[in-house]
């Protein structure tokens, strides 16, 4: 199958689209990445997403963004196919993670019950209608319903890609949040341990945006952090967070390391380079704590995600993990920027074939779960059902509504991609 995987993470940078050819099943599954494209969110869209992420807001804004993101995801798929010179009609399936605006993996009291919950927005029915391709989305709730934390889900794919009969490996992805998958030598699926280690780029990006008055989205290459000095007292205080001592399964997000956390850092009134240097060391140290505690000294640490481009962060990580070989995921044929989009293409493929794709050892679920919800693309029959509208002939004697409908139909014909042959 040819599958498009879509990922928009907690950094809220934009939409990654990976076009992936997938064959086989289970441990014999074969993944061949074909192309990757990234489409930044327009600044007003990014601001709107941040405004509803773990924040008091109007339900109207969430509902509108839910539909708008569906439109943007579909547009991203069409543009990615054009760039790769792959006809849209060749796509068999789309897997869309959606944009997380709230995630609470641990049950908490609510109206007399204890509940875990998660919310990813980006209407999959809109994606399916605009792209003309079936969509699997909203992956996390099935794992929550099985008693898991709904995260992390990528370890299933890490295990398929990186397991080795000779080496113990750790897969590290540094997105907005950093997460690791520990894959012991000759591991079985139940031997895999995975969890969010803490912040990845999220805090660094927020500080860079604050100090540049919004002109920069990140500390490029860690240049500003490289000019500063680490405040050891602040770093030690940050590392005393009880989260780092909790055993897996565990997950975190903007709820822990979002705006409120950044405000507390800014209240320290450190010089910008010093605060960024300290936050960079905090990210690297929290990752290293997770690796050392649950993987010891692995043979290889395979790194993906935007944090790989931050030279200062990678230098700090290497210093905290002496003797561990750091390798980019590109050494294994996986574009570091496309890794999570590829993962959700694989998860969608498994779900489409009604196969479980969570790792209970990673999420804490009671057992395997088939992830995601399926939104079916309109069939040719449904397409033909719209033809009476197309048959309208606007004329002097026709009602205004009919002429407007005909105009709208013509516009849709110019902007809507071909529907699949079914």
Notes on the structure:
The chain has helices at 43-52, 59-84, 124-131, 140-145, 155-162, 202-211, 223-226, 232-238, 254-257, 259-266, 272-295, 311-320, 339-352, 360-363, 380-384, 387-390, 400-415; strands at residues 2-8, 14-23, 30-40, 93-110, 113-121, 135-137, 169-174, 177-183, 193-199, 300-304, 325-328, 373-375. With 422 residues, the chain is of the alpha/beta class. The two termini are 16 Å apart. 49% of the residues are buried.
Topology:
Layout: E1 2-8, E2 14-23, E3 30-40, H1 43-52, H2 59-84, E4 93-110, E5 113-121, H3 124-131, E6 135-137, H4 140-145, H5 155-162, E7 169-174, E8 177-183, E9 193-199, H6 202-211, H7 223-226, H8 232-238, H9 254-257, H10 259-266, H11 272-295, E10 300-304, H12 311-320, E11 325-328, H13 339-352, H14 360-363, E12 373-375, H15 380-384, H16 387-390, H17 400-415
Parallel strand pairs: 1-4, 4-6, 7-10, 10-11
Antiparallel strand pairs: 1-2, 2-3, 4-5, 6-12, 7-8, 8-9
Helix pairs in contact: 2-3, 6-11, 8-11, 11-12
Assembly form of the protein: single chain
* Helix residue percentage: 25-40%
Amino-to-carboxy terminus distance: 16 Å
Number of distinct helices: 17
Number of strands: 12
Low-confidence stretches: 386-422
How does the overall form come out from the CA principal axes?
globular
- How many strands, what sense, and barrel or not for the largest sheet? 7 strands, mixed
Beta-strand portion reads 15-25%
Structural class: alpha/beta
